[in-house]
Amino acid sequence: MVSKPHGGRLVSRVVEGVRREYRLREAVELPSIDLDDTRYRDLENISFGIYSPLTGFIGSEDLNNVLNNMRLSNDLPWTIPIILDVDEDTRSLIKEGDEISLRYRGKYVALMNIEEVYKFDKKLYVEKVFKTRDPNHPGVAKAYKYNEYLVAGDIELIDRVLDDYENYFLTPKETRVLFRERGWKTIVGFQTRNAPHLGHEYIQKTALAFVDGLFINPVIGRKKRGDYRDEVILDAYKTLISHYYPRNSVVLSIVRYEMRYAGPREAVHHAIMRKNFGCTHFIIGRDHA
């Protein structure tokens, strides 16, 4: 059967209906934080349950546990910190207990209840997550640019900024329904940030000999130099699904996510994400993350 969500419950932080209209009006009156692409994608992934069991950006206790033990403070395995950083000026305007709004590209997209504002050690962070302090590593370089303060708290998604790939996106709630409708009891997830090649084809077809369905879940978003463009990846997989793989054996859906390049830690994180989509198995590649 479709796998249980990580932590036992599929999180949804999406506000809908009349309450959404009310919360949108409230958002304009609150202090706000502007999100970059990375934080906005994390916000969406929290909201749709891709990061279940997280209900918001993590606090200091969870951060310390993730860095040192690769677990949340409740002992549930979790390997990549999902954090929201703010600068000194923003920190001076907010405090624990406040409700704030989050904006992305000028649009109010979420509300957040601030549970904690705290500082963190960037050198310790990069050493634990990436096993190096080398600024030439793309994840380390990005982390060194984080602001000094982190803000923790639950979020509510009230609006979205859509891109050209929305027609390729399925939420974990939707994939779980689709897998059940197809009668799939075993599903293998395959993440990719590149166009398919013979090695991918072999692994995927071999996996289909052991499971009911293949869930191809390309990463859409910022990657490292040399990776393929998003539209090339999608076009290539659409061709394979239409002309090569057995009919109704494959589901293609994107995940919007910024690669951290954190090695085994990130591979586990990717597996947890696909578990939340409903996968029972996950393929780890040669140079996965």
Characterise this structure.
It is a single chain. The protein is of the alpha/beta class and 289 residues long. The protein has 2 domains: 17-157, Roll (Sulfate adenylyltransferase), CATH 3.10.400; 166-282, Rossmann fold, CATH 3.40.50. It is 36% helix and 19% strand. The chain is built from 10 helices and 12 strands. The strands form 2 sheets. Strands 1, 2, 3, 4, 5, 6 and 7 form a 7-stranded mixed beta sheet that branches. Strands 8, 9, 10, 11 and 12 form a 5-stranded parallel beta sheet that branches.
Keywords:
289 residues; alpha/beta; Sulfate adenylyltransferase; Rossmann fold; 2 domains; seven-stranded mixed sheet; five-stranded parallel sheet; 36% helix; globular
Q: Approximately what portion of the residues adopt beta-strand conformation?
A: 15-25%
Largest sheet: 7 strands, mixed
Helix count equals 10
* Mean pLDDT across residues: 94
Explain the layout of strands and helices:
Blueprint lengths: L16 H13 L2 E3 L2 H11 L8 E2 L2 H10 L15 E2 L1 H4 L7 E6 L2 E7 L2 E4 L2 H9 L7 H7 L4 E9 L14 H10 L5 E6 L5 H11 L4 E8 L9 H14 L6 E3 L2 E2 L7 H14 L3 E2 L7
Parallel strand pairs: 1-4, 8-9, 8-12, 9-10, 9-11
Antiparallel strand pairs: 2-7, 3-7, 4-5, 5-7, 6-7
Question: Quick summary of this structure?
Answer:
The protein has 289 residues and is of the alpha/beta class.
